[in-house]
Design goal:
The structure is a homodimer of 274-residue chains.
Chain A: H1 3-8, H2 14-24, E1 33-34, E2 48-52, H3 55-59, E3 67-68, H4 69-73, E4 78-83, E5 89-93, E6 96-100, E7 106-108, E8 114-121, E9 127-131, E10 135-136, H5 137-147, E11 154-170, H6 181-186, E12 189-205, E13 217-224, E14 230-248, E15 250-254, H7 259-263
Parallel strand pairs in A: 2-15
Antiparallel strand pairs in A: 1-9, 2-8, 3-8, 4-5, 4-8, 5-6, 6-7, 9-14, 10-14, 11-12, 11-14, 12-13, 13-14
Chain lengths: 274, 274
């Protein structure tokens, strides 16, 4: 059995199909459920999420970029991350990588620049559904959790829609000698944008598998269609949207080959869910 | 920089070379240090440890085999694991996979059989050294830790030698409905073998990255040369040995595509280091 079968059902396995459909219904806030066709014949079990560095490393002030956007692109066309020196946030979509900064700018990155932390994937959604009525981010996450066949695998999540409001932040560029992650977070620049079209991109990681490796549960970044607003999402209200879900049962973790990583006590405080 | 350079030094980087050599010395219990040649030109950063299922899953009684030895072989020729129903222990060396059981038998496995948990790698050691005087396992691990350029990456460890004593265990076959991992562990069969030639095979995982994913720090299994004794090592005394170390900065985690895994609360108690 693989996740794809739970999502889509299988003519030869009626009971599983029924179970899959039941999992996808039972929601009042979410409207029509659309099961998208598969664009790729590979099973979900061949799908790999690629992760550069770890949450532990980031929380322990290993802020130096060590992997290029070029290499990230060879491992995914979709995702999020933290630039070299955590100079803002990273949004990846349709093979393009964007950097947002605390000064409010958003730019496409060069392949030779480096990244300190990232989670990316070649986005191949197995499922999509529409949100037809307004819903805030926390309710959206809780609703989505109930629609997933399991919370024990990795999911890439893309939300394309119109948003009544999005509160997002950009981490400030850190300079050596690096202060703690918490201190950086305290200086993050928070902004709010209203009545905007855009995309949320990110991941859901299993709760317990993640805390030292990645962000547990949901971690989403925003990129508006006009490329004027982008960053790490704190709270939001979705007016209407199409949600795409791409399950993966494999994770490839790439650790930094750098002296700061090798020498870090990796004793930073785990911040928790994103 | 990569780990290989720290191990071996680099003509253009005298200070790093010196540091590497210093890291490799300073031991009284361990004799001549031999730096082996590299058999593969790839850098350590391309090396991948492959892990089937997670420690969380095992500790939460997800004991069903889900991945074949055949697939494991495509991801590594060396390593260890737990068979379907945790019916004993798995030892992999030189591309062959062996299963030991509580009845004391050791046999080579068939590719079509399945495994519930495993960590494997294509073994390509960057470094080797000789143990010339007796040392017990705990001191050996502490000594080895000091020789590593960092404890923040993954290492495959192979110890080929003569052992004064090895206390090892075989996990008992679990039957559905599965009891807890702790209950299985309480019924493990412990044995001791003395004055024997054989191999220890296993891994060292970073302390904090591992606990929910894999065994923190060292996890070693035994296979004697005569294939008569094998299992998970609890304690040992090495008489003399050659130790091979294979560093890796990438980990690929493969989660089970099974209903028991999908439905598990993953709430098993984390047992800790191996």
């Amino acid at each position: 059995m693989d996740i794809r079968k739970v999502f889509v059902g299988d003519g030869s396995k009626k009971r599983k199909k029924l179970k899959g459909i039941l999992l996808l219904s039972g929601l009042t806030l979410v409207g029509a459920v659309t099961l998208s066709a598969f664009s790729v014949p590979n099973s979900v079990s061949d799908d790999v999420v690629f992760q550069a560095s770890t949450a532990d490393a980031l929380y322990s002030s290993v802020f130096d970029g060590y992997i290029t956007y070029g290499k990230l692109k060879r491992n995914g066309d979709f995702g999020l991350g933290a630039p070299d020196h955590i100079d803002g946030e990273i949004m990846a979509i349709d093979g393009k990588y964007y950097q947002s900064k605390t000064d409010g700018t958003v730019r496409e990155t060069d392949d030779a620049e480096t990244v300190s932390w990232a989670t990316v994937k070649f986005f191949k959604p197995e499922k999509s559904f529409d949100i037809l009525q307004p819903i805030d981010c926390e309710d959206f996450k809780a609703t989505l959790d109930k629609k997933l066949p399991t919370v024990n695998v990795f999911y890439a999540i893309k939300v394309v829609g119109v948003f009544d409001s999005v509160q997002y932040q950009n981490f400030p560029r850190m300079e050596k000698p690096y202060a703690s992650f918490s201190e950086g977070l305290a200086n993050a620049v928070n902004e709010e944008v209203n009545d905007v079209e855009g995309t949320f991109m990110g991941f859901r990681f299993p709760e317990k598998t993640a805390p030292d490796l990645n962000v547990p549960q949901y971690h989403l970044h925003l990129l508006t269609n006009d490329k004027q607003n982008a960053g790490h999402i704190n709270t939001c209200k979705i007016r209407r949207a199409r949600v795409y879900i791409d399950a993966a049962s494999q994770l490839k973790v790439d650790l930094p080959n750098t002296l700061p990583y090798y020498q870090s006590p990796l004793d930073g405080e785990v911040i928790g869910s994103g």
